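Lab notebook page, bench 4
Experiment: in silico fold of construct C2
Operator: M.H.
Input chain length: 98 residues
Purpose: comparison with the prior construct
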Amino acid sequence: MAHSDQVLATFQTRVRQMILQFQQLKKENEKLCAKIEQNEAQIKALQEQMAGQERSYQSLKMAKMIEITNSDLQGAKSRLAHLIRDVNKCIAVLSDEK
């Protein structure tokens, strides 16, 4: 009977150890699940931030294209005004020759 008592005591000890290990693993699992949820929330926030930055970039790119177009327009107006002055000078020279 002493042998069976010893086997039973060893079995009980191992069961307790397994229960303690299970509880530790359960706590660790809960911590890891919480960390996963936190990381997923952070990823979602970063993706939203990235989408906002992408929209801002597209708006800035469009504004820059419009700015280039406006400066080209100013340059074209300037060249056209210069050509008109040249034509007026030519007309004036031709008028003086008659």
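Observations: The mean pLDDT is 89. Helices lie at 2-97.
Next step: discuss at group meeting.
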